[in-house]
Structures are given as structure tokens and as C-alpha cells.
Design brief:
The protein is α/β, with parallel strands linked by helices and 217 residues long. The protein contains nine helices and four strands, in the order βααβαβααβαααα. The chain has a four-stranded parallel beta sheet, with helices on both faces. Helix 6 packs antiparallel against helix 7 and helix 7 packs across helix 8. The protein is globular and about 60 Å long. The model has no long low-confidence stretch (mean pLDDT 76).
């Protein structure tokens, strides 16, 4: 029976303290690797760079040392840079082990999912810069406000961030849905697969046959 080293990651300290996203990642990993997780490594760091990922390095070293498979819930949890991600896959294979990304059980398609993860990061960065430029053009004062204004702006920023993340995840879901359809899977099985992996619609709902059909269209 194969053994697994799990790696979960969130991007901010706030998410790390609240557990937002971590429990969902654990649920997905447990679904695919029940009773086979040797150790979990948790990291709170951005996925766009590999310069500050000591926990990931520990997880990789542990997996290679005991010959366990490194498992992640989604491709973007490993890295949002396709070059970094594929370099990690190469290191694992050189160490006589492998990577399992639960959103892409077929290893030969990992590069495609890493590409989408990188593209999502690029889109988020572009939209953020555009939004800041618009605010500057309108004469808005940027920076960290104080008191009540800080609370209101923080809440608005959180809502906006959630919307951007939802759009990115929807793009990821569409890519996976198209792959499933090309493999001859039904709309029902595609919706069931996305729901089992904890992937939500843009509004945070579960997928149905109708929503999958609309997504693909």
C-alpha cells in the first residue's frame, strides 16, 4: 500500500489562523488517500514564488527519504509557477517517488493544470494593478487607512478578493469539466467529481448538470 506525505498551503496569515481553506484541502486529500497519510506539512506563504517555502522543502525531502508520494489537494497549492512546479515533479521522480494532485489524478496532464494555476495568478495580478490604477486616476488615497475606514475598506477588500478567487476557481473548474467531457464522462459524473473535490461554483454552490452544461457552453 502506497504511503503519502500531504502538503497544504494558504497564502495569508489570516487564512492560517482561521483555517480557511486548510480544512477543505485536508478533506479532498483524505478522500483520495484515506488512512495512508504519514505526515502533513502546513505552510502559510504565497504560491507565486519558491524563495520562501521551507515547509515545502521539508515535505519533499521527507517524501523522497521514505519513498512516499507527495500529495496536494490542487495544483496551485504546490506552486503558481509552472517552471517551479515541474521542477519539483522532476526532483520527486529522480528520488524514486511521485506527486499526486487530487484535482488531476492523471499525472501526464499535470503540466496543463500547472499552466492554469500560473495563468490564474497572472490574471489576478493584472486585475489588481488595473483596479489600483483606476483608484489613483480617481484621486483615491491608497495605503492603510485608520479606524472605522480601515474596517470598511478591509471588508470591501475581502469581498473583492473572494470574487476574484471565485472567478479563478471557475476557470479551473471549466478546464477540468472540458477534460472530463473529452474523456466521455457524463454531465452528472462531472458535477459529482467537482463536488467531491470541494470545488464550488462562482457563487459558492454545488455543481449540477445544468451548471456544468452552462460552464462548458
Amino acid at each position: 500500500m502506497a504511503e503519502y506525505i500531504s502538503y497544504v498551503r494558504v497564502s495569508t496569515k489570516e487564512q492560517g489562523r482561521s483555517g480557511l481553506g486548510l480544512d477543505a484541502q485536508r478533506a479532498v486529500i483524505t478522500h483520495y488517500c484515506p488512512n495512508a497519510i504519514v505526515k502533513e506539512y502546513k505552510e502559510i506563504e504565497s504560491g507565486t514564488t519558491m524563495t520562501r517555502r521551507p515547509i515545502l522543502e521539508m515535505a519533499i525531502a521527507h517524501a523522497i527519504r521514505i519513498g512516499a508520494i507527495l500529495v496536494i489537494a490542487k495544483a496551485d497549492r504546490l506552486s503558481r509557477d509552472i517552471g517551479d512546479a515541474m521542477a519539483i515533479v522532476k526532483r520527486l521522480k529522480a528520488g524514486k517517488t511521485d506527486l499526486l494532485s487530487c484535482d488531476c489524478p492523471q499525472s501526464e496532464m499535470l503540466a496543463i493544470f500547472f499552466f492554469f494555476a500560473q495563468r490564474e495568478a497572472e490574471i489576478i495580478s493584472i486585475r489588481t494593478k488595473q483596479a489600483l490604477n483606476v483608484l489613483k486616476a480617481q484621486g483615491k488615497v491608497l495605503g492603510k487607512p485608520k479606524g472605522k475606514a480601515c474596517h470598511i475598506n478591509s471588508k470591501r477588500a475581502t469581498i473583492k478578493s473572494n470574487r476574484v478567487r471565485a472567478v479563478a476557481e471557475n476557470s479551473h473548474a471549466r478546464a477540468e469539466a472540458l477534460i472530463h467531457r473529452k474523456q466521455g464522462k457524463s454531465l452528472f459524473s462531472t458535477a459529482e467529481e467537482l463536488n467531491n473535490r470541494g470545488i464550488k461554483t462562482r457563487r459558492g454552490n454545488k455543481w449540477t448538470i445544468v451548471s456544468i452544461a452552462r460552464l462548458i457552453k
